[in-house]
Specification:
heterodimer; A: 178 residues; alpha/beta; Pyruvate-ferredoxin Oxidoreductase, domain 3; six-stranded mixed β-sheet; 6 helices; B: 359 residues; Rossmann fold; seven-stranded mixed β-sheet; five-stranded mixed β-sheet; globular
């Protein structure tokens, strides 16, 4: 089985961090995985997107042009990439930043107000991890407990608060009811 | 073995350090700047030096100096920067010095773009710089292979006293895959009795030079070097064959393009089309004999070359098989990667040609 995931939003929303967690979990689970960001002259506030492919077979091109799963964290990304989702594919989007109809009935769409939820819970900036929680809950791609352990791995003691915030954010996303 | 996720640009830097490289000279350019960034962080911790030169030209000449003093040394750049280094590369080749040069190719010509390309094949393989010279050129197609070939590249460079190029591209530089670095172990460069190390009058002096005014002397130097090239061609060619056993259609591709071709071969096989892939891992020396033999063994009827350029390696493929078979070409350029589907389209077209001949 091969799953092609594209995550897109603003630079600074933690797209690269979030997609690296998916890649790391896939690696630890013994799956084949590639991760590649769009790279270009974008800076904070510009657009950022990243391709992750998880597979049981060797992976050819690492660049996702037609995602099975799109995680959209802003309107620009939503507009640009929703038309590219494979028929039968999945969309998870931040409905606090994207307030418009999906416009496709051949995909499975899930809305979650991730940015709003993050600031309501005092963890502004953790919308990316809330999205991850939702992704794991819906798809069952990885074991949630293992995924959480990877989320806090490598965060130094000096930033212990970040570990707690990541776990909190993951659980908010994981337990969200539409 | 514990695997870690690493970008190609970081993996080659770490692999070089594991191979005993303690000197890196570079100049920033997308999409390979992470090499210098990584070296800047790591080299001071292992007693090495990472130096950002004032230009690519300065960096390659620092490499020449360090190599002359016997050091394992590397530099890296991307296409336009490699063009700037080409004079220095020629001097390094003319001085019989080993070093590792990484080219993370981007679209060209000119400033071109910053997305993946393979448009420097001719520059790398035919002649980087003036004069009659070669580099050994490795074309990895995964991050693990970048690591493994870095060790091979340093060893081969030292053994034959030649510059070696790792020819990657923007996708390989920027993408992360799981890699096992522990398999490299701790490696040490060999003794280099020819190096200009200073000796306090205790031995005959060593001279590193690429200037020979007497034509006969220069000819002799060049001929001796080409004898070493012949040895390299005999012993150092590397390649991979994939599902070529019964193939009627042989795809030939290297680097990132070879991965996409593998996917296309799988799709073709599922449709019952007998396709396979020949992947050169050394681009110089080109595994010509091996490609020819693989095609003969399988009874290949059509060859399809795919590259991220308008057709450069395709000439070496035609030479390898002596134009015995029809060779089709599929190229994307400017930073665009082909999709497996479009390659499958080409394969299906060639399959239809073969079936027509049979009827």
């Amino acid at each position: 089985m091969t799953v092609e995931i594209l995550m897109a939003g603003f630079g600074g929303q933690g797209i690269l961090f979030a997609t690296k967690q998916i890649a790391k979990s896939a690696m630890v689970a013994g799956r084949q995985v590639t991760w590649i960001p769009s790279y270009g002259p974008e800076a904070r506030g510009g657009t950022s997107n990243c391709s992750v492919i998880v597979s049981d077979e060797p992976i050819g091109s690492p660049i996702v042009t037609k995602p099975d799963i799109l995680l959209a964290l802003n309107l620009q990304s939503f507009d640009k990439f929703v038309p590219r989702i494979k028929p039968g594919g999945m969309l998870i989007y931040d409905s606090s930043l994207v307030r418009k109809p999906v416009g496709r009935d051949d995909i499975e769409a899930h809305a979650i107000p991730a940015t709003q939820l993050a600031s309501d819970h005092g963890i502004a900036g953790a919308a990316n991890v809330i999205m991850l929680g939702r992704l794991i809950a819906i798809t069952g791609l990885f074991d949630p407990e293992e995924f959480k352990s990877h989320l806090v791995e490598g965060i130094p003691d000096s930033r212990a608060q970040m570990r707690e915030n990541n776990i909190k954010a993951f659980e908010i996303g994981y337990g969200y009811k539409e | 073995m514990a695997k870690v996720l690493m970008k190609g640009n970081e993996a080659i830097a770490e692999a070089a350090i594991a191979c005993g490289c303690r000197l890196y000279f570079g100049y920033p350019i997308t999409p390979q700047t992470e090499v210098a960034e990584y070296m800047a962080k790591r080299m001071p911790k292992v007693g090495g030096l990472c130096l950002q030169a004032e230009s690519e030209i300065a960096a390659i000449n620092m490499v020449l100096g360090a190599a002359a003093a016997g050091a394992r040394v590397m530099t890296s750049s991307s296409s336009p920067g490699i063009a700037l280094k080409s004079e220095g590369i020629s001097y390094i080749a003319g001085s019989d010095l080993p070093c590792l040069i990484l080219n993370v190719q981007r679209g060209g010509p000119g400033l071109g773009g910053i997305q993946p390309a393979q448009s420097d094949y001719n520059l790398a393989v035919k002649s980087a710089g003036h004069g009659d010279a070669h580099m050994v050129v490795y074309a990895p197609s995964s991050i693990q292979e970048i690591v493994d070939l870095t060790a091979v590249a340093f060893d081969v460079g030292d053994k034959y006293r030649v510059p070696v190029m790792m020819l990657a591209d923007g996708a390989l530089g920027q993408m992360m895959e799981p890699v096992d670095l522990e398999s490299l172990g701790e490696r040490k460069p060999p003794e280099k009795p020819w190096a200009t190390t200073g000796h306090g009058g205790l031995r005959k002096k060593n001279i590193i030079n690429s200037l020979y005014i007497e034509p006969e002397e220069l000819e002799e130097k060049v001929r001796a070097r080409f004898e070493r090239y012949a040895q390299i061609a005999e012993h150092e060619a590397r390649w991979e064959e994939y599902k070529l056993g019964d193939a009627e259609i042989c795809l030939v591709a290297y680097g990132i393009t070879a991965r996409i071709c593998k996917t296309a071969v799988e799709m073709a096989r599922r449709r019952g089309i007998k396709a396979g892939l020949f992947r050169p891992i050394t681009l110089w020396p080109y595994p010509s004999r091996q490609l020819d033999e693989a095609c003969r063994r399988a009874g290949v009827k059509r060859v399809l070359v795919a590259e991220l350029n308008m057709g450069q390696m395709v000439d070496d493929v035609r030479l390898a098989i002596n134009c015995r078979l029809p060779v089709a070409f599929h190229g994307r350029t400017g930073g665009v990667l082909p999709s497996p589907e479009e390659l499958l389209g080409e394969i299906a077209r060639l399959d239809a040609e073969i079936k027509e001949e049979k009827d």
